[in-house]
Design brief:
binds magnesium ion, 8-stranded parallel barrel, alpha/beta, 32 helices, 33 strands, binds phosphoenolpyruvate
Length: about 850
């Protein structure tokens, strides 16, 4: 027969999955000789059997009865005894922690008679009555479903009982065993409460795990001045500093510490109050940390000078604390370097690379938008780029607030602390530019209204004027009226250490997407091993350049275009020189012009003359994403790409002549779908390079961002030196979704309604887009086994996508400068996971 119940000191094979997190902690502590109240765990298997049968579990009741009997023997108290009753808590505890999601009932075993006995045996009537009141209320809520609001902590026992009787139409159960049985059933049922289900969906926890139930002898921290209760961490969970951190309350019960009804004292003060218990607590915590080799978060109670541990678990911590603890524990020989690297959650690192809101501060969120670029900033509202530039240059903090931004706003964006837009998605101009600059951006904020005439805005229910201060949090999409204190980014020695260890473990190289020397330098500082994508379109904006670019587009013939391009060339060249210098000795992939030309012209209503108006109309497209863009521009107007290749060649030569390292130039053609496209563009590239810099070593390759390119990668590889997967466009074209038309619209609905689990523009769709990548890799390498392969879509900085890229054998990932540290860590973890799997297979797993 299946064994469903285990005493804490009874060996069980199923570990955490069987006993749950709390149960395994109590069992291991008991077995380590750490003082834990006596008790037993009813397994998750019992819960699963309960759910499967719809109620009855054969043999369970008898087994529980046996364990209660053993508990009575051990404690010398009897369950239901009217004089000195055994009291227990009934606590849930799933294998994966779901804090506060399921139910717990304390003080089970009290009734009208035994409450008097408890008062006598403790000499404390108030305490006994308080315990009984808590039981009636907790039992009423969790077992009988009485609304929480029906009760109050000020209720007397009589009042609580009255409410119970009124709401349930029966008396409070007096039989201790019945209380226990019903409390256990209620904990099982709480696994399927709607809040628990929502939590599981949010954190990807399977619905069929079930919860264990722990029945634990009650120990009381509220038996006078030699009793106490508290919580503690073995290291500071916000900084990772060594030392003991925690708080306690003398003469109190567990929930008083969390409920905030009394202010707890810092743990050190326990030393003066109960020195023996304090010393024992410190020794116990040290033993627990040595055993678990990780920071522990514990609950304890001191009953009349005697210490008991009620729980131990791996402490949740900030990114800074995770890093410090991992580095320190490696120095203390508790863990190895690879374990230290494996323990840091790369997603959490974002916290460290941008200023954040101080979550301890008081603030009210006025509106939500898309979390388009991480970081937080406060500043005065400005409604146009010129004002932003003016105030920014004067040293004022400003937030640019717009319906949406355009390339014309760039000077304002540069001077602003952050940007807030009412329209636009994650790839809107504001979002892309802000991410590149490492500035916060909240985009697509529906609850924002702008009246540029009156210079007012409405954010949620707040009416504000230009000049009023707001705070935006681009990491979460929150918009707040007024200033909120910020916590600055922290890149310290420990962070560097972890990243260096990660570098020793990873196979994937990490490059950055950077369009200017400043971003390139930032990327290098963060450890980028080159530039995987330098977009060139931003180089055509700016006061002096845009009018020339427009002349090129408006020119009636090739000669006119060439004339304008000749004037643009020096600008491009100087931009490339600065980037090559910042990246001296490292590869730099320059992507030739990609967006449709109409992006460089104003709106038709703003055309300055008839010729411009006509050209704007001519260039209008129904679906610009699928129109005349990418290499199609270079095929139709080769002089544009010629100028760009010439500028690259001249910049490389100039940098080399100035004595710098020769840059490793990689010319990349966008949106190639056919071999013939790249064949022609390769010929163009080779011709211009031969004219300008015959000695220069360079590579000529393509982005793979169309399904056809992935499928015909073998042919395309014949004329390519490298491939870089452009998964932004590859996702759009594979899924048939325009990102700007999906995010904040139907895609949001899909995610809310669980049609899709993840946003495929953030987390690579491994089955669909990923499969095309796999095909592209296989077919490309069939033609050229040594071909260099990378990714430069935004997925290159997302941990699970980085692991996928490692798995299909790419050589590098490329992501925004601020995500480089995250990608370094994710690449190391991918290598570690692969090694683990190999070991498992070798061991016959
Ligand atoms: C891509 O499509 O993945 C890419 C990197 O190019 P862009 O985002 O500039 O279209
Ligand atoms: Mg693209």
């Amino acid at each position: 027969m299946t064994h469903y119940v285990y005493d804490f000191d009874e060996p069980a094979d199923g570990g955490r999955e069987l006993l749950g997190g709390k149960g395994i902690g109590l069992a291991e502590m008991t077995q380590l000789g750490i003082p834990v109240p006596a008790g037993f765990t009813i397994t998750t298997e019992a819960c699963r059997a309960y759910m499967a049968s719809g109620g009855e579990v054969e043999g369970l009741e008898e087994e529980i009865a046996e364990h209660v009997e053993r508990l009575e023997e051990r404690t010398g108290k009897r369950f239901g005894d009217p004089e000195d009753p055994l009291l227990v808590s009934v606590r849930s505890g799933a294998a994966i922690s779901m804090p506060g999601m399921m139910d717990t009932v304390l003080n089970v075993g009290l009734n009208d008679e035994s409450v008097e006995g408890l008062a006598r045996s403790t000499g404390n009537e108030e305490f006994a009555r308080d315990c009984y009141r808590r039981l009636i209320q907790m039992f009423g809520e969790t077992v009988d479903g009485i609304p929480h609001e029906s009760f109050s902590i000020d209720d007397s026992v009589e009042r609580a009982r009255e409410i119970y009787e009124h709401d349930t139409a029966h008396g409070f159960p007096q039989d201790a065993r019945e209380q226990l049985r019903r409390a256990i059933t209620a904990v099982f049922d709480s696994w399927n409460s709607s809040r628990a289900k929502i939590y599981r969906r949010t954190y990807d926890i399977p619905d069929d795990l079930g919860t264990a139930v722990n029945v634990v002898q009650m120990v009381f921290g509220n038996k006078g001045e030699s009793s106490a209760t508290g919580v503690a961490f073995t290291r500071d969970p916000s900084t990772g500093e060594q030392g003991v951190y925690g708080e306690f309350l003398l003469n109190a019960q567990g929930e008083d510490v969390v409920a905030g009804t009394r202010t707890p004292q810092p743990l050190e003060e326990l030393h003066d109050r109960l020195p023996e218990a304090y010393d024992q607590l410190l020794a116990t915590m040290a033993a627990l940390e040595r055993h678990y080799r990780d920071v522990q978060d514990i609950e304890f109670t001191v009953e009349e000078g005697r210490l008991y541990l009620l729980q131990t678990r791996t402490a949740k911590r900030t990114a800074a604390a995770a890093i410090k603890a991992a580095v320190d524990m490696t120095a203390e020989d508790l863990i190895q370097r690879d374990e230290a690297v494996a323990r840091i959650d790369p997603k959490q690192l974002d916290q460290l690379l941008h200023p954040r809101l101080d979550e301890n501060a008081q603030f009210e969120v006025a509106a939500h938008g898309l979390n388009a670029s991480p970081g937080a900033a406060s500043g005065k509202i400005v409604l146009d780029a010129d004002t932003a530039e003016e105030h920014g240059k004067a040293g004022e903090a400003v937030i640019l607030v717009r319906w949406e931004t355009t390339p014309d706003d760039i000077h304002g964006l540069i001077q602003a602390q952050g940007v807030l837009t009412a329209h636009g998605g994650m790839t809107s101009h504001a979002a892309v530019v802000a991410r590149g600059m490492g500035k916060p951006c909240v985009a697509g904020c529906d609850d924002l209204d702008i009246d540029s005439g009156k210079k007012t805005v409405r954010i949620g229910r707040h009416k504000l004027r230009e000049g009023d201060v707001i705070t935006i949090d681009g990491g979460t999409g929150r918009v707040i009226v007024g200033e909120v204190p910020l916590v600055p980014p922290a890149i310290n020695e420990d962070f560097e250490t972890i990243l260096e260890w990660a570098d020793e473990l990873r196979r994937l190289k990490v490059r950055a997407n950077a369009d200017n020397a400043e971003d390139a330098a930032k990327a290098r500082e963060f450890g980028a091993q080159g530039i995987g994508l330098c977009r060139t379109e931003h180089m055509f904006f700016g006061e002096e350049r845009l009018p020339v670019m427009q002349q090129m587009i408006l020119a009636g013939d090739e000669a006119g275009r060439r004339d304008a391009l000749d004037r643009l060339l020096p600008f491009q060249q100087s931009d490339f020189e600065a980037i090559f210098e910042a990246m001296a000795g490292l590869p730099v992939t320059i992507r030739l012009l990609d967006p449709p030309l109409h992006e460089f012209l104003p709106d038709e209503s703003e055309a300055t003359d008839e010729r411009m108006r006509r050209r704007i109309r001519q260039l209008h497209e129904q679906n610009p994403m699928l129109g005349t863009r990418g290499c199609r521009l270079g095929i139709q107007w080769p002089e544009i790409y010629e100028m760009q290749v010439r500028a690259i060649a001249r910049a490389a030569t100039a940098v080399q002549e100035r004595g710098g390292d020769a840059p490793l130039v990689e010319v990349m053609h966008p949106l190639v779908g056919f071999r013939e496209e790249l064949r022609r563009l390769r010929e163009l590239t080779e011709r211009v390079m031969e004219e300008e810099a015959p000695e220069l070593d360079y590579l000529c390759g393509t982005m793979i961002e169309l399904p056809r390119a992935a499928l015909r990668a073998d042919e395309i590889a014949e004329v390519a030196d490298f491939f870089s997967f452009g998964t932004n466009d590859l996702t759009q074209t594979t899924l048939g979704m325009s990102r700007d038309d999906a995010e904040g619209k139907f895609l949001t609905f899909y995610l809310e309604d669980s049609v899709l689990e993840r946003n495929p523009f953030e987390v690579l769709d491994q089955e669909g887009v990923g499969d095309l990548m796999r095909i592209g890799v296989e077919r490309g390498r069939e033609t050229k086994p040594e071909m260099k392969l990378g990714i430069c879509g935004e997925h290159g900085g997302e941990p699970s996508s980085v692991e996928f890229c490692h798995g299909i054998g790419l050589d590098y990932v490329s992501c925004s400068p601020y995500r480089v540290p995250l990608a370094r860590l994710a690449a190391a973890q991918a290598a570690l996971n692969e090694a683990d799997r190999a070991e498992y297979v070798q061991a016959g797993g």
